[in-house]
Each structure stands twice: as structure tokens, then as C-alpha cells.
Amino acid sequence: MVSLSPMIEISNLTHVYGGGKKALDDLSFIVEQGELVALLGPNGAGKSTTVKIITGILKPTSGSVKADGAEVSENLGRIRSILGFMPQETALYQDLTAQETLEYHAVLYGVPKEEIAERVAKMLDLAGLTQRKDDLVRTYSGGMKRRLALVRSILHDSEILILDEMSLGVDVQSRNLIWNQVRKLKSEGRTILFCTNYMDEAEALADRVIIIDNGRLVASGSTEKLKQKHVGKYLIELTLVGLEADQGSEWLGEKLKMNVEKVSEPLDGGPRTAWIQSPSGHSDLPTVIGTLTGLGLEVKAASLREPSLGDVFLAITGSKLRD
Prior knowledge:
Blueprint (H helix, E strand, L loop, with lengths): L5 E11 L5 E11 L3 E5 L6 H8 L7 E6 L2 E2 L4 H7 E4 L11 H11 L4 H14 L15 H13 L5 E5 L7 H16 L3 E5 L3 H7 L2 E6 L2 E6 L1 H8 L3 E8 L7 H8 L3 E4 L8 E7 L6 H10 L3 E8 L3 H9 L6
Parallel strand pairs: 3-8, 3-9, 6-7, 7-8
Antiparallel strand pairs: 1-2, 1-4, 4-5, 9-10, 11-13, 11-14, 12-13
Helix pairs in contact: 3-4, 5-6, 8-11
């Protein structure tokens, strides 16, 4: 078996912003060579701060961040030559064409002059923009801009890719193309860390998922392992009538002697939805319904399904909205 080596190493990383706000709190994780890893977390969890430190935009308060074995803060020139970054805001020059954008980036990152034309043509083809290469970026759709930003990040043959919300605000066709591009980049041996708020995107692409909350690592592993550990094999979804406003997931869990992932908020006394973690599936369902009926609750609808990564995320980080 081939032994992989870490391409991104984060050790005991802490960052405190002015005013004393702690964005990262002793965070540690690694991304192995050739891995495709999703970095997840609620709003304010520390994802953007982590990305800014890995890319050298921000210097940490304490801790270590290495890329390909080199400390980022001490080797910015080398790190930026092997690292490609696609920010959440595409940051494209609106009055340049796609061709001009990529040529400018090639010069900026020291691509050999004799290779520029070939690399630019290849990137335009990869992004599906060859026919629009001479049009100004300002005329592009959101999906076209995201695709251009993605290929711009790999134009200088970057070994490590950091992608922040790569499919934000794009249509289904552009999203599918971006996903296929990312899969192709992984197949070429690149190491990819991406942040996303789309759970289906992480589930579809990632070899491994890292979840952070309040600046700390709270879970790491493959989607399947995280489902087994934090949710179970099945999820029972019930529509209930008769639950009082103060009868939430904790109350229901005590009555059922099961883990209740979430109970929807009461709305004008109408039905509420409960999601219950179930190790046994079909054999648990009649028992659950019988218990709830015995408590005087009416079960309007019931379904059984396998959990998603979104269920895992809610089980770990909670369902409360974050600003």
C-alpha cells in the first residue's frame, strides 16, 4: 500500500481578531496528498479564517500551518507557486475577457512565456468558455464566472487547491460541470480542500469530511462513517399533532428512549415534524408510532429513510440558526 504524505497540516491553530473574538481555538487537522476533503461548519464556525490562514492572507495568532511540508507564513513565495485559491467572491476583472484574464494570471504567476498560449487554451476548453473567450467577463453568467475562477486557480499547475463555495449561485448545468472538473483535478493527483454550505455537494465529492464549530474540530471522517456514528442506519420522519410548544427533541427522546435529532418549531398550533435516529429501521417504526399514540399524539404521516450528510451536520452542530 502506498503511503500518503500530508499536503496540508494544521496544528493547534488559534486566531483571535481585534476585540478578543476567538475565530479558531486549537484547531488541528491534516489533508493527505491526493485527498478531496470538504470543510464544513455553521456560519461563524471559522471556515473562512482557516482558508485565509492556509492561503497566507492572514497570519495566525498561534499554531502552525504547513503546505507540502513548508510553514506557510515563512514561505509565502513557494506556497503561492504550488497553491491555487478560488475565493467565494470570484474577484474577476469585469473589463477583461476570459482570454485576457488567464493570460494576465499566467504572467503574474510566472508561467513560462512559451507555455502560456497552450495553457490558456486548455483552461478555456476545460471551463467550456472557448467560444466566449473574447467576450468581456461582465457579460458572463454567474456560472461562467465561477468556471473561469476555477480554471484560473489551476492555470499555474497548482498542486494544492483551496476552493471556497465553488458552486455558489450557479445553475444546475454549471454546477455539474464544476463538479466534473473537480473530480478530474483529483484524478490528476491534486490535493483539494473545499468549503461548502451545500451538504449534497460535500456528500457527492468528498473522500472525507471535516466539520468545525466555534473554531474547533468536532468531527472528521468519511460520510458513511459519520452517518453511522452520529445518526445511525436509518432516520424516522414523523408529522405529529398534539405536541405542546415546550415538548421538543429532549422531551420526545426521553419518552421514546431514542435519539431525536430535531423537532420543528411550533407554528400556530399546527403539526410538527420530528426526526428520530433509528438503528433498526422498519422494526422500530411500529414501536415508535405505538408509543406516541399512547402519549395522546396523532401521527399524521411517517416515513423511513437513510440519513444524509445534512442529518449528520444537524446532529453535530444543532439546528439553531447562526448569524
